Amino acid sequence: MDGIVSKVGVEAIEDHQETGAVRSQFDLEKTPASMAVSATLAEVMAVDSVELDPLYSAVDPDALDALVRVRNGTIGDINVSFTHADHAITVSSYGVVTISQGHEHADQYETGEDDF
């Protein structure tokens, strides 16, 4: 699926049936990571993002945005993992949010090297 998810620009969302993980891709220059997390989690839970518990109950949204925002000249990727609303969430500095049910992170889909 491409386009708008919960009124936030998310370029793609992919459901990995074998792991139960959902992965979305977003443009870090246009969409803050915290907004992409909320939009993707709302899509996964089939609710409006305003119905979710506030993201700040699990992670500081401003700190999350600062950690993964586009940085020129940096080497390597940054992954931030946390749990929220009984889902394991990983956000990467290459613009990918991975969400899986429970508290186990879907490591297989965190590398960013898989094709979308």
Compact overview of the structure:
This protein is an alpha+beta fold and 116 residues long. 18% of the residues lie in helices and 29% in strands.
What does this structure look like?
This protein has 116 residues and is of the alpha+beta class. It has one domain. It has two helices and seven strands, in the order E-E-E-E-H-H-E-E-E. Strand 1 and strand 2 form a beta hairpin. The N terminus and C terminus are likely disordered.
Q: Which descriptors apply to this entry?
A:
116 residues, two-stranded antiparallel sheet, disordered C terminus
Largest sheet: 5 strands, antiparallel
Please give the number of β-strands: 7
Shape estimate: globular
Mean pLDDT: 81
Q: How much strand content do the residues show?
A: 25-35%
| Helix/sheet category | alpha+beta
User: What's the domain count?
Assistant: 1
Distance between the termini: 11 Å
Following the backbone from N to C, one meets helices and strands in this order, namely: EEEEHHEEE
Number of helices: 2
Radius of gyration based on Cα positions: 13 Å
Helix-residue proportion? 10-25%
Query: Which ranges are low-confidence, i.e. pLDDT below 50, for 5 or more consecutive residues?
Result: 1-6, 108-116
Strand order of the biggest β-sheet: 3-4-7-6-5
Protein name: Halobacterial output domain-containing protein
Pfam families: HalOD1
Domain Halobacterial output: 30-100
